[in-house]
Design goal:
It is built from 15 helices and twelve strands. It has 454 residues and is an alpha+beta fold.
């Protein structure tokens, strides 16, 4: 069997379309569509017709049109089985209701109240590290952000539940990535496969753990205890009719917030340390800023605004390794994009990975250059060319939480240690988020100038 030639896009296989190339390396596939076929490229995932758009203005228009002339894509059984019908998956009036209930829990004023937990957990980790030790950076960052996520989402008395939740989430991450890139994406929900069995087992663990925590919160609330965590805010939330989130909705939103508060930030921090290890000038500028602004003390929420280079390190890391590496939506009747009609039922995709690595918007796109984000940078970044958290009405609710957490963790750990990866450099695995494809190992060094008092 040989792929046939189709006008206006890449060659595709009968029945499979472009699935083999997409499954083999979806990130390289998106870049090849952009480079070899242009900014508006039709392609096929099995029998499904898709279009990849690569211009920032098209990406921004697509993101802004979801819930009007476009609707969110159905991303398969595994995705829905994990996230249920939470705010990421829900559509229409159901989505608007859930967003209104969840959004107040992650507004900047609430994120301020979680900053102390972020700093406390990072400081405890730094206290366990020893100069000269060799660490698995991703494992350390995952453990740290798990503790932060569990404490901010479920409260300090939920500590100790990180291990089963983490193991189950890691399994779910692998199986979701495998299903999305394989033929099982097209199988009906009732078809059993080994991967779906593992996904069911992992989700059962998550359901059990979250149910236990919800019961504890309900008992504490009945006893008159006041709590200041995300789950307590979700339990207290009421819609315009005075109705609360149902038990299933609490479960779905807890999973969604956990992924947003843990998965995305742990990988962002892992990539940041690897990138800083290979960029001594950027690392030196980070050390200088932390010394000058913090002077050896622990950061607070208010310091976030006073650490512009630290924020730029995070922003540039999210450009090079965006946690959300693809976004898609389905056209409805009358949909247009860039003034061009889009046939109803067509899935329109855009990829933060390929847009972020387009030399038209980011010269030398493979290079890690936080100075791109200087206020006086010689080449301003076009609007919508950077969108690691999506955009439009369905932009990630936890973006502020993730940005503040990443910057404060870098500030705490970066004052006391430099993570030296040497010549080792992990590649990427596109799962639910963009993960390292192998352990990221580093040696703990003291920053130039000796130990910092924190």
């Amino acid at each position: 069997m040989h792929p046939g030639t189709r006008g206006g896009g890449p060659r595709r296989w009968p029945l499979l379309g472009n699935l083999p190339a997409f499954a083999r390396d979806p990130l390289a596939f998106f870049e090849s569509l952009r480079d070899d076929h242009g900014d508006w490229v039709p392609w096929f995932l099995g029998p499904r017709r898709n279009v990849l758009v690569s211009l920032p203005e098209h990406a921004g228009e697509l993101l802004g049109a979801v819930e009007s002339t476009f609707e969110p894509s159905e991303l398969g059984w595994a995705f829905r089985h994990l996230l249920g019908n939470g705010v990421v998956v829900a559509t229409g009036d159901d989505w608007r209701r859930k967003r209104a209930l969840v959004q107040p829990a992650v507004r900047p004023r609430q994120v301020r109240s979680y900053a102390a937990t972020m700093v406390e957990c990072a400081d405890a980790l730094a206290g366990r590290w020893r100069e000269g030790a060799r660490i698995d950076v991703h494992a350390e960052m995952a453990g740290l952000t798990q503790r932060i996520a569990v404490r901010t989402l479920f409260g300090s008395d939920a500590a100790g539940r990180e291990a089963p939740i983490s193991a189950a989430m890691a399994t779910a991450q692998r199986e979701l990535g495998a299903e999305f890139r394989g033929l099982t994406l097209f199988l009906p929900p009732w078809v059993r496969t080994p991967g779906r069995r593992r996904m069911r087992e992992a989700v059962a663990v998550l359901d059990r753990e979250i149910e236990h925590v919800i019961r504890e919160h309900e008992a504490a609330s009945a006893a008159g205890a006041e709590r200041d965590d995300l789950l307590s805010r979700l339990l207290a939330a009421r819609d315009e009719h005075g109705g609360p989130l149902s038990r299933r909705e609490l479960r779905d939103e807890s999973i969604t917030l956990y992924i947003g508060g843990h998965e995305t930030t742990s990988t962002t921090l892992t990539w940041a340390w690897q990138l800083l290890s290979g960029a001594p000038e950027a690392r030196a500028r980070l050390t200088e800023e932390l010394d000058r602004v913090l002077g050896g003390r622990l950061p607070t929420y208010d310091d976030y605004a006073l650490l512009p280079w630290t924020r730029q390190v995070v922003k540039e890391t999210l450009r090079v390794y965006p946690p959300i590496w693809l976004i898609s939506a389905v056209a409805t009747e009358g949909a247009t994009l860039g003034g061009r009609p889009v046939t109803a039922g067509t899935s329109v995709w855009t990829s933060p990975w390929s847009v972020h690595r387009d030399r038209r918007w980011f010269p030398d796109p493979e290079a890690f250059r936080p100075e791109r984000w200087d206020d006086d940078a010689p080449q301003p970044v076009p609007e919508h060319a950077w969108f690691p958290f999506g955009g439009g009405p369905r932009a990630c609710l936890g973006a502020r939480f993730a940005l503040v957490e990443a910057a404060l963790v870098l500030a705490v750990l970066g004052q006391r240690f430099h993570l030296d990866s040497g010549s080792e450099c992990a590649g990427v695995f596109p799962g639910l988020t963009l993960q390292p494809d192998r352990p990221v190992r580093a040696t703990l060094r003291r920053p130039a100038g000796g130990p910092r008092q924190v």
